[in-house]
Structure formats: structure tokens, C-alpha cells
Amino acid sequence: MSQQNPENLALWRSYICGELDANTESRLEALLQGDEAAFTAYAAALSSLESELPGPKDEEAYRQSIIEQLPHARESKARTSSRRTWSRHPLLHYVIAATLTALLLGSGVFDHIALKSNQLIQRPNSSSLSERMMKATTSWFDSWQR
After folding, report:
1. Are the beta carbons of 59 and 53 closer than 8 angstroms?
2. Rounded alpha-carbon distances, angstroms, from residue 114 to 37, 102, 117
């Protein structure tokens, strides 16, 4: 079957035209899936029958129906992808980070943290620096919650 001789070409033409019995058709379909040479023979038979095979009944209507379906698919894909991508855009993340930084700077959070850490560093005390910073932070959180 894998050789391209006239008998095989005639067999493939009969398959394309639907002139074979069901057993032979199923055998040829299985052969098409597994044998590349059989597929090549099928393609050669199909191209030789191209001018004889019928086309669509109303070719213009068929073409128009395909063209009408294309923009709708593109629009729906564009709408769903734009909904997903705007939240992942890096510019949005930069704007959020800049806004939060401006709010924290404006509220004096950074100044308060710097003041407390300077007081802890310069205070002569027997406790370690990390303990003093922890106490200052917890006291700041306690005063902030009230």
C-alpha cells in the first residue's frame, strides 16, 4: 500500500469518491493514520481529483459566512484577554507602589520609625539593640491601635 503505483492511486481515488465498502474504508483510514507513505499516496490522489470534486453550492455565501465568524472570535478573545492583562500590567503595579509610598511618607510613618530607631541606638541601656527595637516597635503598634 505504501508504494505509489496506479492500482493504489485508483484505490485512493475510489476511497475519496466513496465507492468502497465499509471494511476497506476502515482499513484505509487506519492506514492513513499510521503510514506516511499511504498519506502521501492519498494526497496525490486527492490533488489529481481536485478539478473533479464538487465545491460548495454557493461559494460566495460560504466565503461570507466564514468572514462573518472571524471578527466575532477575535473580539471575544480581545475582550477576555484585555480583562486579564490590565491587572497584570507592570505599570499598574508601579502606580500602586508609588501611591502607597507617598501615603506612608505623607503620614510620617517613616519619620516615626527613624526617630524611634535613633532613640534606641543612642540610649545607653543594658538590653540588646534588637530587644530595644522590638519594644519600640510593639509600643508604636500599641499606640497606633488606640
Report:
1. no
2. 78, 17, 5
109 φ, ψ (degrees, to nearest 5): -60, -45
Residue in the block written with cell 471575544: 76
Largest CA distance in the chain: 104
Q: For 1-39, what is each residue's pLDDT tens digit?
A: 444 566 778 888 888 888 889 899 889 888 888 888 888
Q: Please name which of 115, 114, 120 lies closest in space to residue 133, comparing C-alpha atoms.
A: 120
Residue ranges of the alpha helices (H) in 35-128?
36-48, 59-86, 90-107, 109-122
pTM above 0.85, yes or no: no
Contact in structure between 25 and 15 (CB atoms under 8 Å): yes
Quote the DSSP letter at residue 125: -
